[in-house]
Design goal:
Layout (H helix, E strand, L loop, with lengths): L4 E5 L3 H15 L4 E5 L2 H13 L4 E7 L7 H11 L4 E6 L4 H10 L4 E4 L5 H4 L1 H14 L7 E5 L4 H12 L4 E5 L4 H10 L8 E3 L5 E3 L3 H7 L10 E7 L3 H12 L4 E4 L26 H15 L2 E3 L4 E7 L2 E6 L4 E9 L3 E3 L15 E2 L3 H4 L7 E5 L3 H10 L5 E5 L11 H8 L4 E4 L2 E7 L6 E6 L5 E5 L2 E4 L3 E3 L20 H4 L4 H4 L16 E3 L11 H21 L1
Parallel strand pairs: 1-2, 1-3, 3-4, 4-5, 6-7, 10-11, 10-15, 11-12, 15-26, 17-24, 18-19, 18-24, 19-20
Antiparallel strand pairs: 6-8, 8-9, 13-14, 14-15, 16-25, 21-22, 22-23
Helix pairs in contact: 2-3, 10-11, 10-17, 13-14
Bound molecules: flavin-adenine dinucleotide.
Flavin-adenine dinucleotide binds next to helix 10, helix 13 and helix 17.
Amino acid sequence: MKLPYIIITDDDIQVLRAIQRDIRNQYRDEYKVAATESAIEALEVVKELKLKNETVALFISDQRMPEMEGVAFLEQANEIFPDAKKVLLTAYSDIDAAIKAINTVKLDYYLLKPWHPPEEKLFPVINDLLDEWQALYKPDREATRIIGFQWSQKSHRLKEFLSGNLVPYIWMDVENDPEAEKYLVSANVSKSDLPLVILKDGSYVKDPSLPDVAERVGLHQKATKEMYDVLIIGAGPAGLAASVYGSCEGLKTLLIERSNPGGQASSSARIENYLGFPNGLSGAELSRRAITQTLRFGTEILTPQEVKNITIKDGYKITQMQDDSEIHSKTIVIATGVAYKKLEIDGLENFTGAGVYYGAASVEALACRNESIYIVGGGNSACQAAMYMSKFAKEVNILIRRDALSQVAANYLVENISRTPNIHVIIHTDVIACSGSSVLENITLKNTITGEEKTVPAKALFVYIGTKPGTAWLNDLVLKDEKGFILSGSDLLKDKSLNTLWKLKRDPFMPETSVPGIFASGDVRFGAMTGISAAVGEGSMAIRFVRKYLQEM
Ligand SMILES: Cc1cc2nc3c(=O)[nH]c(=O)nc-3n(C[C@H](O)[C@H](O)[C@H](O)COP(=O)(O)OP(=O)(O)OC[C@H]3O[C@@H](n4cnc5c(N)ncnc54)[C@H](O)[C@@H]3O)c2cc1C
């Protein structure tokens, strides 16, 4: 297998030698290292590698170089290897240039000279960047392949599931990729059997269910222990954070997710308000980091597995799955967040996954290249999706009922959108009908003021019209508000029915529900702040109270 490259450039020969030595010693088994004394020379190397079909994982460039500054070099190198990570080597006096470069060249890191000891200041950063690069890198021959029809619901579910579970795959559209046909012939599979999933070892499965694919790519659906200290339902930011803290504190921790870890956050194309990531990061990347972290501490993850009920026996909690298996635990953290509301239009459900998507912008982005697409709703999630899709689609139309986007979305997003020429905001508008043979082809829009209707071609409709709590599965075991959000802590004290339910001498802990030892965290909790940081905070905090409860038991 070809090893990917790390390219280093610095005109100061002493510095170049030092960093080349450190990088080579640490990474020589997995990467080739090329070092040059000038940025011009480095660019020549980069072009040559491209022609030879080689890959670059990381560029490390000094900022101050006489022929070309580091930022300019990274900008040009980025055009040739856009996925490679970029590190700028800077002196303290160049920090301003480095911070600007975060936006102009999407710099991944600026490394202050000197970086000694490298074990503390260099390798952790480079490891992190290379892990991130590896997660998205799909070496041509080694990834799982999905072959199917672009606008098929089944193909969409598979792509979404694998990408959400960080399983790299190569997507092959049977109608547009001549290579796809060759695989069908080799596997003796007809188009009516699609989608076809071909595993890394060459085995394949026709039109598989998600659990079947999960099993084959090494994801687990059965718990291994008789009893867990804490069982967490939902692997959004709240559930993932709870699992990290649970395992890290030595609790036997099980995390259950019905689709893919990351929750709503995983569909965010760019999160800009998460502490410590000044150049933003995608939801998929945040999820990848969290999954890696929680697995490292020893959390068991079951996916796809959906919880359908909870019962209590002698204070122990019994969690029942859709496949009727049961898992026992001492405590439970419910972190099932919220789910998108469906757009209520006759016949629209026929196109879900076949032109109509709920929060799946990043998965379907490439398929929308040069197309006109529509986004329903104008909140922050809708705006983020619009910004992301504007890089691929010919035009992105945001449909809102109100007068202006500024009434519903954050300022920075409204400004970004107004500066993006291929995004149009269409106000006072509802979608009232849709049509298409097997996939979505047209939608009908209605102006809510004038009543005027028009039908327009639409390749894709992304729906972001609000959410409802993910508690439809939960019986009446815990108290909820009238919308279905779970009551906890002091909010429970206002509910008169608590007196008959709560038998302990103490009041419920802050995230504790009306059942001792069952906690709620994140968006699903009544009164939660919502947002990624808040969910992470709530998930982490729940574990503190889980421990208190365990001490009481
Ligand atoms: C497109 C988009 C962009 C966003 N961007 C930002 C942003 O930039 N910054 C920000 O702060 N916030 C953002 N948000 C909001 C943020 O993502 C949420 O507030 C956050 O994800 C809530 O986390 P959570 O863990 O409480 O729930 P969720 O993220 O909703 O996760 C809940 C999880 O539980 C699982 N689940 C539900 N029921 C079951 C069941 N019965 N069994 C098993 N599993 C189940 C779900 O599949 C899901 O994975 C965005 C939201 C969206 C939709």
